[in-house]
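In this section we walk through a basic example: taking a raw amino acid sequence and producing a predicted 3D structure, encoded as discrete structure tokens. The instruction is simple. Fold the sequence below.
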Amino acid sequence: MTDETSLAFSHPAARAAATAGPDPLDRISLSDLERVVEIGAFQQERGKEQRVRFNIVVEVRSEADPDADDVDKILSYDALIEAIDHELQAERLNLLETLAARVAERILAHPLAARCFVRIEKLDRGPFALGVEIVRTAPERPRLSLLQEDAPHPQIVFLSNEAVERQDLAALLDYFEAQSAPVILCVGRGELALPKAAHAMPQRRIDLLAIEQNAWVLASRDDRCVVVDSRTELEAAMKAGRISVWAPSKLVLDSFDGPDISDRSGAALALWLAESFEAEEMVVFGGDVPQSETLDIRTMGADEMPG
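The resulting token sequence is shown next.
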């Protein structure tokens, strides 16, 4: 085969490499993801599911820092899978071309995505694969609403130290798991005395780490409680319906518009998180109750059970 023909039938990664500009961008890829869906314009394809295979390559304006190893500063592989699954669930489509264009558009809504190659193949139409491959470039102003329109709105639950130790914690988690909104648990500092630093910034970190120590105490009491510190992991856990326990240091210290409060107040930090994630509700079990003009805050005794 000629070079052009060989390239046409190669993985999208080869096409991306061959068409790169003088300053090549980083690339991430998803290979051979299969889904079983109903798709197709022909009558024989209606009411019948078939296997479809996806290969995607995305050129990214990487902000990855080799020293930081920070998942919030890259385009996550989960974003590629979520783009596919979202478009497959949105409506039945006739054309692979339409599906590919919508998947690419959704991926390119991410601010780090620059160019996207999408190949989709039908695998059950015969002893061969039938497919389409497209390439799309990100618009100058990414439509971020594409990524946010279906973002879950969590329920933020703040537990005082007394609530962390309640004997019926498992039953409380059962209750919140049964609700429609995903749950993020927040805590304050534990009871142990903290070291005193001579300057504000070290003291801020000490206070935040004390909250994170208490988060691990809570996580040790039930396997469903997973300590999470990045926005990416929180969003992934919410979409999967998993319970998270928030470790605040990373988001607070990395934020350009962080909480204008004392970092010693776990409940106030929980409110900042709730407002940042547009939470459906915040529930406070014991302790001080922060004030909010935009969010409903429900107060409970440390040992109360909602009902």
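Looking at the output, two observations stand out. The two ends are 69 Å apart (CA to CA). Confidence is low (pLDDT under 50) at residues 142-148. In the next section we compare this with other chains.
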